Amino acid sequence: MRKSLVILMLVSLLTLAAPRAQAAGDFASDAGIGIACIFVNILYMPAKLVYATLGGFTGGVAYLLTGANYEVADRIWTPSIGGNYIVTPAHLRNEDTLYFSGTTEPPPSAGAPPSAEAPQSVHEPVGAPQK
Fold first, then answer.
1. What is the pTM of this model?
2. How far is Cα 68 from Cα 61, in angstroms, rounded to an integer?
3. What is the sign of the dihedral through the CA atoms of 96, 109, 70 and 119?
4. 117 is a domain residue
5. Residue 46 sits in which domain range?
6. I need a surface site. Which of 49, 98, 119, 131 has the fewest CB within 10 A?
7. In whole angstroms, what is the distance from residue 68 CA to residue 99 CA?
8. CA 33: distance to chain centroid?
9. Closest CA to 104 of 55, 65, 63
C-alpha cells in the first residue's frame, strides 16, 4: 500500500512537472522558419565569409601600406569582419536586426535617450553632409 502511494505521488509530480507541448500551429510555423533559415543561410553565409575574408585581407594590406596605422585598417576591418554570420529565426521574424556589415558607431546604451543626430552610415565618407 505504501509503495503504491509513493509511486502514485511520483507519477503525479512528473506529470505536473512535464513541459507542455506547443500548439500544432506553432510547430508548423517554427518548422517553416527553420527551413527558411537553412535556405537563406546557404546563400548568406558564403557571401558574408567572402566579404569578411576580403575585408580582413584588405585591412591587413592597408595596415602595412600606411606604416602600421591601425585606425586605417580598423576602418576596413570593423565593417567587413563585424556583423552577423548566420541568419537566425529571430532575424526572419523581424525580432532582431540583421547586420551584414559591422557598425562603426558604438551601440546606444539601453537607458540612454536617442540622440538627435542619426549616426553616419559606414558607407558614407567622414564629413559628408547629413541628410
1. 0.59
2. 10
3. positive
4. no
5. 29-103
6. 131
7. 28
8. 16
9. 55
